[in-house]
Structure formats: C-alpha cells, structure tokens
Amino acid sequence: MMQDYKLASSIEEAVELNKAGYVFLAGGTQVNRSPFLKHGHRPEKVVSISGLDLSGISREGNEFLIGAGATLQDIADSHLIPDVLRRAAGFIPNRSVRNIATIGGNVGAKRPDSYLIPTLMALGAVAETVAGPVSVNEYVDGDNETLIIRFRIPPLEGACRAIKESRSHQALPVVSAAAWMRAEGGAVKEAVVAAGCVAPRTMRLREIEEGIVSGKLLESGQALEVAVAGAIHPEEDILGSREYKTYINSVLIADLVRGLAEEVLK
After folding, report:
1. Which of 35, 118, 163, 185 would be a feasible disulfide site paired with 43, CB 3.0-4.6 Å?
2. Which region, left, alpha or beta, applies to residue 213 given φ > 0 means left and ψ of -120 to 50 means alpha?
C-alpha cells in the first residue's frame, strides 16, 4: 500500500529520493515493476517525475532524440522519428493510456509484453540515464533502474519492422516483436531480432540473428520457424498455453524475418 508520494522539483531530487527507497513514477499507468519482482508487494513510496522537463522529440544531425517523458501518443503522432516506432506506439489500443504513458516509464517497467522495447532494441536505441548512456538492450536485460533522461536512436540504415498479435483489439499481446536488417552486396550483413511475450523480459534472439546473417535460416521457411521455436521460452497463462504461444510466435516472427529479408535484398 502506498504510504508516501512526493513530486520531484529536479532530477537531482528525484535521484536522491530514489536512493532513499522511492520508486520513480512517470505517467502513472504503472509503477516500475522491479519492486514487485524483488519484494512481492506494491512499493510504499513513490516520487513523481511528471513535473520535470523530460519530454520532447527532436533530431540531432541524423540521430533521433526522444525525451523519456514523451507520451506514447506524442510518439505515435510524431513525424520526426522512424515510422516503425510510431507504429509500435500505436499498437497500444487505448488512446487514453497513450496520452498518459511515457516511453521512459514503458522501458523502466521492463514489461515482457511491451510494444516499444523490441522496436527500440531493433533500432539500436540508447537510453541516456543520469549515470550515463546504456543500450536499451542492456538496460532491460540487467538490473538497471537508473532514471532515464532521454533516448537516442542512430540513423536508420536498412529496414525495420514491428509486429503484434493479440486475441482481440484490447487484449494483451501474445506476440510483440521487431526486427532490423541491413544488406550489402546481395546478402544480409547485420540483423537484430527482438521478441517480447516469450520470456520474463524482452530478449534478443541472437541465434536467429546469426542464422540470418549466415544465410542458413533464409534458405528454408520451416527451418526458420523451428529455430525460433527452439530459441523462445513463453510461459503458460490466461492468454494461452506454452504450446500455443510457441507456435504463434515462431510462425509470425519467421514471417517477419522473411518479409524483412525480401525488402532489404530486393
């Protein structure tokens, strides 16, 4: 049960309160999930960072900058950022949630069913935190809970796509994935495949990435589906059985990879 709520007047104050046990609260649609995992109960003390000037979307040269306080609706509406990220933000069906939820809070919560995290991973995004820059992949994969100030996305080379699948428009997803590829000389030279909904946290499918670059997994659609199925570990829950989740993710992620490969190799 929440017993104390404070509104930070500066980044420095928010950081100090966090060191004292306060959990960061951004848009307010969810609280950083780390305390739930560590202690098994709701955090008792939160510090709101909603009053800090952490929003804004801009370009710096060929790079894209997104403030951690930018809402998902801000991202969905922006024409300054890659279309794939706008699309991923729009995957969240409820506009009321998109108007409040922030990109920093979404990444900080490290939800395994996030629509934004796989896309940010695929784009090679970096989270600029009060402790310094760290890739979104490293931030999500580790125990990092440092306050995120903004995200920096490098120039988009090649192509990137994101997908989702849910039982209904409003339902939580059973598939949330993104992939990026760059080709040169008629062959895929680099690839990133990131998947949510298949493990406790969004994960890079590195064996799949290696198989794409080597060309082995692009030779046979069935081999690609089998490889994806072997690389993921979804848990059974109200959304579906382990077998169903493995099947639907392997099929749709394989389709994503094949379609992206065709796009960059044409």
Report:
1. 35
2. alpha
Question: DSSP string spanning 241-265?
Answer: -HHHHHHHHHHHHHHHHHHHHHHHH
Question: 250 with 182, same domain?
Answer: yes
Over the Cα atoms of the chain, what is R_g? 19
* Domain identity same for 146 and 166: no
Q: Per-residue pLDDT tens for 74-95?
A: 999 999 999 999 999 999 988 9
Q: What's the rounded Cα separation, in Å, for the pair 91 and 68? A: 19
State the residue range of the domain holding 23.
Answer: 4-48
Same domain? 141 vs 164:
no
The pLDDT score that the predictor gives to residue 143 is 86
Q: Contact, 106 vs 117, CB < 8 A?
A: yes
Token pair, residue 253, equals 């992620």
Between CA 266 and CA 262 the distance in angstroms is: 6
- Write the DSSP symbol of residue 162: E
Q: What is the mean pLDDT of the segment spanning 202-221? A: 93
C-alpha 33: how far from its chain's center? Answer: 15
27 or 161: whose pLDDT is higher?
161
Among the three residues 118, 153, 188, which one is the final residue of a domain in this structure? Answer: 153
Instruction: Answer with the residue of higher pLDDT: 53 or 243.
Output: 243
Alpha helices per DSSP H over 23-155: 34-39, 72-77, 83-90, 95-100, 103-109, 116-122, 136-141
Indicate whether 38 pLDDT > 50: no
Are the beta carbons of 114 and 97 closer than 8 angstroms? no
Mean pLDDT across 37-58? 79
